[in-house]
Amino acid sequence: MNSLTQDSQKAAARVGLVSDSITIHGGKPLRGRVEVRGAKNLVTKAMVASLLADTPSTLKGVPEISDVAVVSGLLKAHGVAIDSSAPGVLTLDPSNVVGAHFAEIDAHAGSSRIPILFCGPLLHQLGEAFIPDLGGCRIGDRPIDFHLNALRAFGAVVEKSYQGIHLTAPHKLVGADIDLPFPSVGATEQVLLTAVRAEGTTELKNAAIEPEIMDLIAILQKMGAIISVEPNRVIVIEGVETLRGYNHTAIFDRNEAASWAAAALATGGDITVGGATQQELMTFLNVYRKVGGEFDVLEDGIRFWHPGGPLKPVMIETDVHPGFMTDWQQPLIVALTQAEGESVVHETVYENRFGFTEALNEMGANIVVHQSGLASITRRVPRRPLEQAAVITGPTPLHGADVRVPDLRGGFSHLIAALAAEGTSTVSNVGIISRGYELFIDKLRQLGADFELPS
Ligand SMILES: CC(=O)N[C@H]1[C@@H](OP(=O)(O)OP(=O)(O)OC[C@H]2O[C@@H](n3ccc(=O)[nH]c3=O)[C@H](O)[C@@H]2O)O[C@H](CO)[C@@H](O)[C@@H]1O
Ligand SMILES: C=C(OP(=O)(O)O)C(=O)O
User: Fold this and answer.
1) Binding of phosphoenolpyruvate: at which residues (predicted)?
2) At 393, is the secondary structure helix, strand, or coil?
């Protein structure tokens, strides 16, 4: 069994997903309503933030996804008492934070990227931290140099070993001036979670300002932190000695919402995404409209549908917020296989995020991924050294195939392609999808998808 399949089976087991594959009979529009809850990319960080307090926190809107299970396991290993008896609500009590045993941490190694964010909170609480190997989607090298350099700037001593990373704070952590080479989401969160209790002031330049980061800042402010978001990606944090627990409802998952929107378009369907709001999806909504999709912003969600007639090709560049999010391109590309003409999707955030298109080509799509010579394709000069572009020529009818999920968003795009395709497809390794899509099998059923799970 290869490691991707192992990752998938572990993720499936964490959320009680009984099957790691699904057989889909496609060609049927998805119609109905699904609810999205808290964002994977906020909830897990909010859980880590609870470690910084001296009283319990309450987090609401928590989805049943395997990344939440991984972070719960790591927090429990560090002595945080977690009550999850109320659906979608976690109370996290950090009164007895302790160093974890290696075996307990190692059980979660390679499953998510969130462990790296434990550094600052554990250094503040215990004076040391041990971080196991990171996981997350394999979509590029994903180095952590910005994180470690920032931690060093606060005064942490970093020692790497083959088992993980050991950090100590021989003297107190002190505020620092940090200028990120790229507005990294994770590194911005690393700085926030460390600076809030460091002595003195931290100025972070070239910070990421994704909505999930703004929600994390809101949480930290509720806890007693002093953080100001200034123009031009500058965030200033005045350290405080202690923080208290928070009570917060997580921002909705805009990546899940965009995925269901793309599913409506690709299958010729009509899906209302309950819990989605317009502000966080503005860039996505503009592109959705340009492609030919319709949407209606409701009081309690957004309705997305295919109005009939041909879809139009588009040119997109993924970017940091407020640009077109890199996690949105995979589901949308399935819809673009049905647009009349040539679309170009230029990936500027990760250097290897089009692996999923191979399976779409097996299903009949015409997608060519270019590693170089991008200027001639997109008529622009690359901004980062390792950019890729995918050229999608449509419309091409999709047909069923047996495909394996390579990563979270690519995997969801495989589900959408199978739902849109004529004939039967088997999608395996679907456990990976449960890292970020809550109860997706139940939601597919609600939307009238025709599928079977192996008995
Ligand atoms: C759990 C979570 O929130 N995941 C999201 C987060 O990932 P994550 O926080 O890992 O992504 P980053 O924003 O940090 O990465 C952006 C780019 O910066 C590079 N980089 C990052 C850190 C570093 O130390 N060195 C470095 O070179 C990365 O390789 C990548 O090319 O933001 C990404 C960009 O919106 C999203 O696709 C992910 O869904
Ligand atoms: C890349 C993603 O997540 P992670 O950073 O957790 O791998 C994602 O959510 O698409």
Assistant:
1) 40-41
2) strand
Segments making up each domain of the chain, as ranges:
3-36+252-452, 40-249
Whether residue 319 is annotated as binding a ligand: the answer is no
pLDDT, position 419: 98
User: CA-to-CA distance for 65 and 72, rounded, in angstroms?
Assistant: 11
| CB atoms near residue 138 (< 10 Å) | 17
Binding site membership of 350 for ligand 1 (Cβ less than 6 Å): yes
Instruction: Decide if pLDDT at 111 tops 70.
Output: yes
The answer to whether the predicted template modeling score (pTM) of the entire model surpasses 0.80 is: yes
Cite the DSSP H helix spans in 57-205: 66-77, 102-106, 119-126, 145-154, 185-195
pLDDT, tens only, 320-365 = 999 999 999 999 999 999 999 999 999 989 989 999 999 999 999 9
Please report the atom of ligand 2 found closest to the CA of residue 112.
Answer: 6
With 80 as the cut, is the pLDDT of residue 222 above it?
yes
Task: Please spell the DSSP secondary structure of 128-139, one letter per residue.
Answer: EEEEE---S--S
Average pLDDT score over the chain: 94
CATH class of 3-36+252-452: alpha beta
On whether 407 is known to bind a ligand per the annotation, the reply is: no
**E strand segments, 125-282:** 128-132, 157-161, 164-168, 177-179, 201-205, 226-230, 234-238, 247-249, 270-274
Active-site residue flag, 137: yes
- Does this chain's domain 3-36+252-452 share its CATH topology with 40-249? yes
The closest of 109, 110, 130 to 119, measured between CA atoms, is: 130
Which pLDDT does position 101 carry in this prediction?
Answer: 86
Please give the CATH topology (third level) of the domain spanning 40-249: UDP-n-acetylglucosamine1-carboxyvinyl-transferase; Chain (3.65.10)
Q: For ligand 1, atom 14, name the residue with the nearest CA.
A: 184
Q: Residue 317 pLDDT > 60, yes or no? A: yes
Q: What is the dihedral of CA 168, 174, 179, 180, to 10 degrees?
A: 30
